[in-house]
Amino acid sequence: MELTREQIDIKQAAREFAEGEFKERAKEFDENESFDLSIWKKACENGFVGTFIQEEYSGAGLGFFEHSLIAEEFWRVDPGCGQAVLSTTFGSEMIQAFGSEELKKKYLPPLVNGEAIMGFGITEADAGSDAAAIKTRAEKKGDKYIINGSKMFTTNGTLAQYLLVLCLTNPEEKNSHKRHSAILIDTGSPGYEATKIHGKMGIRASDTAEISLSNIEAPITNLVGKEGNGFHQLMDFFNKTRNHVAAQGVGVAQGALELALAHIKKRKAFGGALSRLQGIQFMIAEMATRIESARSLYWRAAYSVDKGRPDPTLISMAKWNAGDTAVYVVNQALQLHGGYGYIAEYDIQRFYRDAKIVEIYEGSREVEKSIIANDLIKR
Questions:
Q1: 125-144 tens-digit pLDDT
Q2: Class assignment of domain 118-226?
Q3: What is the pLDDT of residue 110?
Q4: Which of 314, 327, 328, 345 has the fewest CB atoms in 10 Å of its CB?
């Protein structure tokens, strides 16, 4: 498939924005585990944030494909900065798909306009890949839910003005996939506590936190979708966001390849240019081919979502393959840097640390492989 003229322009604009805003400060953000939110606001002003949000809620009304194209270009320049900017709408996909009109009108426009950041509390200490095992509980009391529990690895946990939380609402339900619900909370509520996680291996510019929820009150109207339908809504959510993660993997791989190419063109070995060695050329050819293959796969998967026919198996293939490609290519790129790749002054070291997360979050590679295999066996 080929990109439209508009999509090509979006990719180019995203690349130029990232190169202008991320490149010079990426090392600083990585070292300080911080990010300048004025860059996020500028990205909102330029229309890069929440492009999939419909026009009636201040969005561009583009598809998830376009969002993925932007993610690839942002991650190509710097994964940490790319994640810090584009994750600010994380969870809005579920609000748009299942939320009431009241929730959409209240919570979606501020995300696009640079007025608010949100996140989604899913993972728990003993419920990572096993989302059906989540224990954070929401009990009805009159016209409110009272929420108690904790969440781990919550993106934007210390920054978000509101947070979508996957909660146990129907503990007596025999079907474990019908026990949970998604509820929107205000992080300014009494009982909300977020502790920033320091020392992450990669994407350090992106805020990640451990969340404690103690008697948090949320109105019944903040229920997103139907009570007990949270798990199934989460699977729909992942069908969209896993495409974004696949694009991230392709982006970090592409960026690493470009760093490697620039490096080998400057270096000499065995009496000639490093780039003229056949073994080096073979490595470059393999890296580039894997990237192109992963890109084509995530394009197909994103296209299926935007056409209203999401294919979970294809999406899982794209996500797993992109993660595998990211880790492989960045490892090869660091190898091509030799000892220089082991020094923090070189961007490839940061890319090496950043790439691994693509194989872990929003469904580990093992989860993705299970989805693929189970579907094939059923067929």
A1: 988 788 889 999 999 999 99
A2: mainly beta
A3: 98
A4: 345
